[in-house]
Amino acid sequence: MREIITTDQAPQAIGPYSQAVKVGNTVYLSGQIALIPETMELREGDISARIHQVFQNLSAVSEAAGGSLQDMVKLNIFLTDLNHFATVNAIMAEYFQQPYPARAAIGVKELPKATDIEMDGILAISSY
Fold first, then answer.
1. Which residues share a beta bridge with 26?
2. What is the 3-state secondary structure (H, E, C) of 28-87?
3. Among 49, 63, 92, 94, which is least packed by CB within 10 angstroms?
4. How many CB atoms are located within 10 Å of the residue 48 CB?
5. Which DSSP string do the residues of 111-128 spell out, in sequence order?
6. pLDDT at residue 127 greater than cutoff 80
7. What is the CA radius of gyration of the chain?
8. What is the CATH number of domain 2-124?
9. How does pLDDT run across 22-61, given as a tens digit for each residue?
């Protein structure tokens, strides 16, 4: 049985997809970019500000699904410039504790709304 997860604490979908889909205790989070939920505008400033916004958006959807970032078992990070990899690592350490999720960091040519970072992931919530 699939449950569609939605929250106004994260950006609304900008296409034909759900913020997340929960099947049993597994939650599949759609990609999040650094949109501010209230304005649907990209977070301005350096990439650090956008990385924080992406983690805040992922966290909001995770909480709407009954979990948290600590339930993340797989995180995918898409960057238009892999030179920001160390910055992502430093900021990620503020949001996660060991054991860390499995992760991929992928360099891409472009991302929606001409942003420079997007992340998606999978949660395994221990109780449902």
1. 23, 124
2. EEEEECCECCCCCCECCCCHHHHHHHHHHHHHHHHHHCCCCHHHEEEEEEEECCHHHHHH
3. 94
4. 14
5. -GGG-SEEEEEEEE-S--
6. no
7. 14
8. 3.30.1330.40
9. 999 999 999 999 999 999 999 999 999 999 999 999 999 9
Contact 27, 40 (CB under 8 A): no
User: What single-letter amino acid sits at 8?
Assistant: D
CB 32 within 8 A of CB 54: yes
- Calculate helix-pair angle for 85-95, 47-64, nearest 10 degrees: 40
Q: What is the mean pLDDT of residues 70-90?
A: 97
36 vs 72: CA distance, rounded Å: 22
CA nearest 58: which of 127, 122, 125? Answer: 122
Separation of alpha carbons 112 and 97, rounded Å = 29
Q: What is the rounded distance in angstroms from the CA atom of residue 95 to the CA atom of residue 54?
A: 11
